[in-house]
């Protein structure tokens, strides 16, 4: 009888650490899986955000030559914000605005340029000041 109790006691003493180890291992696997799932969700959200920004960029480019001033200004402000929020898109955005300015350049004489031209110049000056 004593030997059976000793065996049961030994199994209980060994079983508890083994069960704890198995529990920790399973918990680690679950946390790892959840972490991978969270990373995948973040990547998917970032891709969706970048797709949205690409759409905004394309729409703004198309609106730069719109006949209505308020639409051109909205396009300029959108491009300015894209350049600020996405450093990897900043250079192409500023190049685009500079090209637009060069292509639509006119001699305004003593008159002040229209506000959309002034806003583009302001944006490009801010860019030069940052460098």
N-C termini distance: 86 Å
| Radius of gyration based on Cα positions | 31 Å
Binned, the helix content reads over 70%
- What is the helix/strand order? HHHH
How many H/I helices?
A: 4
Please state the structural category.
mainly alpha
Shape: rod-shaped
How many runs of DSSP E, i.e. beta strands? 0
Q: Mean pLDDT score, rounded?
A: 89
Q: Which oligomeric form is depicted?
A: single chain
Number of structural domains: 1
Low-confidence spans: none
Question: Which band does the percent of strand residues land in?
Answer: under 5%
Write up this protein.
- This protein has about 130 residues and is mostly helical.
- It has one domain (about 1-130).
- The chain has four helices and no strands.
- The chain has helices at about 1-65, 70-85, 85-105, 115-130.
- The protein is rod-shaped, with a radius of gyration of 31 Å.
Question: Could you give a short description of this structure?
Answer:
The chain has 131 residues and is mainly alpha-helical. 85% of the residues lie in helices and 0% in strands.
Features:
single chain, 131 residues, mainly alpha, 85% helix, rod-shaped
SSE blueprint:
Blueprint: H1 2-63, H2 69-85, H3 87-103, H4 115-130
């Amino acid at each position: 009888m004593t030997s059976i109790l000793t065996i049961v006691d030994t199994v209980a003493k060994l079983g508890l650490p083994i069960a704890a180890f198995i529990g920790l291992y399973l918990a680690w696997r679950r946390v790892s899986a959840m972490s991978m799932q969270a990373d995948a969700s973040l990547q998917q959200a970032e891709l969706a955000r970048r797709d949205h920004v690409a759409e905004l960029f394309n729409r703004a480019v198309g609106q730069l030559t719109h006949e209505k001033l308020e639409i051109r200004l909205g396009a300029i402000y959108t491009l300015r914000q894209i350049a600020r929020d996405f450093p990897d898109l900043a250079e192409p955005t500023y190049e685009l605005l500079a090209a637009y300015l060069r292509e639509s350049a006119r001699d305004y004489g003593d008159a002040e340029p229209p506000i959309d031209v002034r806003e583009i110049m302001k944006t490009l000056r801010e860019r030069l000041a940052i460098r």
